[in-house]
């Protein structure tokens, strides 16, 4: 079956037809061949993503950041790159294998993109390893935190680790030989392995074996207080016990990254849940896309690995050990407050705190008075959104709760509250997106747990992911039924809500409540409602609605009225919207884009994008919110929601944006955007050459304003 890679999803032609025939109407694909715009106006999305991960690496390299935070950014960089290979590089390889030679919007063929990716990633991986070894490790040692190799350990430490190996490690190891009776073993993706060469002293025959480093054991083994050694070093030092009677000649660490994207044929599946479970089993056996080896690996051993794994030389990355620096998360977690960002505990939002007493805040009472605009993590998630759902579950006057779940944490109070509500007899509808990448298994567990408790669980539409973050509560009150709604830019996940920057809106507005009712009926039944009062939805109206408002700004500008466009996003790739922005820039409309990750738009080009500025802010919190602002002739219009400007969000996901109605909310977000785009705020700036330049110091070398620290300080002052 022919497939093509679209953003982060692999979609079959049949699935595309299914999506277009779903209850949502999908707009036709955009033709990038615009006669009035030049070719080559789009940046390649894969290379733009690599530039984003470069910005993460620059934070790890920043000597002004707390040391353990630099360690954290090293781990984040490594984890990001793993997922990039598992999904994006895997998709490009699949397209090449299928003979697909369609040029991307950037004008590059898949082969050309892959070549550029490999050149860039090898440079970045080398730079990443150098940062760890040359910068971070020596600084850690000065602070009494040591990551040692086996040969650096004292004899007393080795003795202690001998016992640890015998008691805790040896019993779970399984050495696998390779010979005519034992074929080359399957190497699981992202596992750390030892390639071992042993010799039979009687026959002088050499043999190859593989030993997998158990992922259930700590990646870095404590030697004593804040001194660690990699687990693979401990295993390597005891290989003679795994191969008794044999002579261990050499050993080398290696690691394989596999294609771990999913290809669920939804149109053929009688049961989507079962189809996804089958595909999750197949995911483990995806083809390799990258082989990482230690830089001193024996050429013959490397030749064997390359041959047996079916990778080519370009896909081999030679690095100094230890491999897989995503494991240094454990080092970043050390209890050393002086080496981290100062502790910050979110406070209850002021509009909720006003009704707070000795008891938890009454969210319903607050939201009846006015809408509440939340800004996480500065505003507490637990005393706002989580409390909203928990209060609804416990309130005898609540008749029904409707909820979308895309990602949540392992022990979710949100799920617990929904279970309690269903068991209490309330009508509970949960739209669980079981296709949320890398959270599929967890979401299947949530779905089954919710079903067993009596919740009505649905999985949305074939061919579409439900990505919108919505909650609706129907409550019986003295003056009749009242709807309470929450829409967010981030997931219903209390853990990430402390780390991700997101907006949320709590409302009892009648129009918004009716919109939510229509949308949930759309998700669970056969409603064909596509027109809403305060919402734009995808895949029906977000792209068209935003383009209409971009063009409206052009008309305002031509008429001499105030006109300006400001977006805050994770990514912008959609060609139709980018072209609309180009045309608005040609007309003279000022445009500011705050993009955390991928940006396919080129700013500052003469005659095309001279009025467009693109900034990026990375820091302590992950900038995750999506905000769409239009000056609108002096009557600003702002929208928040879950959609980035990517094909997958606008065409293959159920998304929702909500318009802010209250003047104080519009003013609050306007001020935030003012600060974000101010020249005195630290940020990365995207240049005409497609490269990002970090500007965090003024001309005198003094630090520029840190947006996140400014918001933390403002939050503390309000208490």
TrEMBL record:
What are the protein's GO molecular function terms? polyphosphate kinase activity
Q: Which ranges carry the Polyphosphate kinase N-terminal domain? A: 42-147
Binding locations of Mg(2+): 407, 437
The cofactors it requires, by name, are: Mg(2+)
Keyword Nucleotide-binding tagged:
yes
Per the Swiss-Prot or TrEMBL record, the active site comprises 467
| Top-level taxon | Bacteria
| Reaction(s) this enzyme catalyzes, per UniProt | [phosphate](n) + ATP = [phosphate](n+1) + ADP
Keywords for this protein: ATP-binding, Kinase, Magnesium, Metal-binding, Nucleotide-binding, Phosphoprotein, Transferase
The segment(s) forming the Polyphosphate kinase C-terminal domain are 362-528, 535-699
Enzyme Commission (EC) number: 2.7.4.1
Cytoplasm: is it a keyword of this entry?
no
What is its EC class? transferase
| Chain's role | Catalyzes the reversible transfer of the terminal phosphate of ATP to form a long-chain polyphosphate (polyP).
Q: What is this protein called?
A: Polyphosphate kinase
Report the source organism.
Tenggerimyces flavus
Organism classification:
Bacteria, Bacillati, Actinomycetota, Actinomycetes, Propionibacteriales
